[in-house]
From TrEMBL:
The name this protein goes by in its record: VWFA domain-containing protein
Coiled coil feature spans: 93-120
PROSITE patterns linked: VWFA
Keyword 4Fe-4S belongs to the record: no
Keyword Coiled coil: yes
Domain VWFA: 273-438
Entry keywords, A to Z: Coiled coil
């Protein structure tokens, strides 16, 4: 019902036929009621009402009350859905009723009502009652204002208490707040928050790595050669199809099968090699820097047994990790949290660095290069030779661009010269998933035709620009 309501609203707004548009608009209130009634749990009702409010739909108060009561929701929670406002938030903080998530959701719903004075008022109430959920929600909503308010009200003790409550929630929001407000924080406070953000970044990187990369990305990998099984080979490398064909050709009975009747994939010597060049020019703030930092931490942990190189670039190139450099998560997380958006975009030296890594420091036959940029570069002519060199080194090349803002013409030139593929992403929170899917795809698998096709199937599931 949510999707149907939204689609009907969009059709009614865009329809050029006034009579048709009016007819559709008349049906929307009824569909809105059905959308609310489709909720089976209090959380579903909260999500539905928040969604409808976000797209500008007017909900009938009686519908919300009726469905809320049917689902057994307390009256204050029902009222919160009907008319979320500052006075309700203040009451929840005073009475220590809402948990971190509930308070955070309400703050996001009424963010236009939360100015500096109101944040200060809520901070004073939370400090006085030691409401840690409220302090954490305030810090995750506006880090700079919350810390300043805590310091003004409670001095160093108040500031320390606010910092100690910032770890509430998933951690992603704290990282966003760090990248948005770090320039406004006093130096002593900044270091404390950075240490907490670093801890959260490492934990998130490890979590994303285990959840998205698993253990399939490390160690020797199969190549397109099979041979008879030898004692000590890994059973997981047995090629069932080749083994069955071999047994059928020999006409062997089950009790006559020997070890060398099984066929196994030969494994490549050396490990996977992957280089990442990340564009940090322009307005790289908030969400962009957060999910880029999480993705790189995820890779550093997940590919710690492989060869991984990472560099940032704008008008200059800043190497985070060389291919043959041992991984120090603490150091890498610290540097990621210090990355700032800078001036123009020059790509040639970053590509030159990557080619040098592949040529001089790689011991693997599998080579992957991922370039992230909007393709608005000032030295595209100078960079073309580096793209061609990368192709000659048999490197699988992927260009990732933000869907809503990139230069398609220049992007096409890049992937054509490198013999690679172009991917686009709609939302920054998709970045870790996209990167992990690239790593796990068949593209990083000895360049066989079969594996390249599986890689293409993966990329077709994203929005490819070519």
């Amino acid at each position: 019902f949510k999707s149907l309501t939204h689609q009907l609203q969009q059709l009614a707004n865009s329809c050029s036929n006034i009579h048709c548009s009016q007819k559709m608009s008349q049906k929307i209130p009824n569909l809105t009621s059905l959308t609310l009634e489709s909720s089976e749990t209090p959380n579903q009702l909260k999500n539905v009402s928040e969604f409808l409010r976000k797209i500008g739909m007017n909900m009938d108060t009686k519908d919300i009350q009726r469905v809320g009561k049917k689902l057994g929701m307390p009256e204050d929670e029902i009222y919160e859905l009907i008319e979320p406002n500052y006075h309700l938030l203040k009451k929840l903080v005073e009475n220590k009723k809402g948990n971190f998530q509930r308070l955070s959701n309400l703050m996001n719903q009424i963010q236009d009502q939360l100015n500096n004075e109101r944040i200060k008022e809520l901070t004073a109430i939370a400090l006085a009652s030691n409401n840690r959920d409220a302090l954490g929600a305030l810090g995750n909503f506006n880090l700079s204002d919350a810390l300043k308010s805590a310091q003004q009200i409670g001095g160093q003790e108040g500031e320390n208490k606010m910092v100690s409550c910032l770890s509430a929630g998933s951690g992603e929001n704290l990282l966003k707040q760090w990248f948005i407000h770090r320039k406004d924080l006093p130096e002593t406070t900044k270091q404390k928050v950075k240490e907490l953000a670093k801890k959260m970044l490492i934990e998130l990187g490890i979590y994303y790595s285990r959840a998205r990369l698993g253990s399939s990305t490390t160690g020797p990998v199969p190549i397109n050669i099979v041979r008879p099984y030898s004692i000590g080979d890994d059973f997981e490398n047995i090629d069932l199809e080749e083994t069955i064909n071999n047994l059928l050709e020999k006409g062997k009975k089950l009790d006559h099968i020997e070890y060398d009747d099984f066929y196994v994939f030969e494994t490549a010597k050396g490990l996977r090699t992957a280089c990442f060049e990340l564009d940090v020019s322009g307005s790289m703030t908030g969400d962009k820097l957060t999910y880029m930092a999480i993705s790189m931490t995820m890779l550093c942990y997940g590919l710690r047994k492989d060869e991984l190189g990472i560099t940032f670039f704008e008008s200059d190139t800043h190497v985070l990790k060389e291919l043959d450099e041992k991984i120090n998560l603490e150091k890498i997380a610290d540097e990621l949290l210090s990355v700032t958006a800078r001036g123009g975009t020059k790509i040639q030296s970053a590509l030159e660095w990557a080619n040098k890594q592949f040529k001089e420091h790689s011991n693997s036959r599998e080579k992957l290069n991922v370039l992230f940029t909007d393709a608005e570069v000032s030295d595209i002519k100078e960079a073309m030779e580096e793209f061609r060199k990368m192709r000659s080194l048999n490197v699988d090349f992927i260009l990732v661009c933000p869907e809503n803002s990139y230069n398609l013409k220049e992007a096409k030139k890049m992937v054509k010269a490198a013999g690679g593929q172009l991917l686009t992403i709609k939302s920054w929170n998709e970045f870790p998933k996209l990167i992990s899917d690239i790593i796990k795809s068949g593209l990083v698998s000895a360049g066989t035709t079969e594996n390249r096709n599986s890689g293409e199937r993966l990329f077709n599931s994203f929005d490819s620009g070519i």
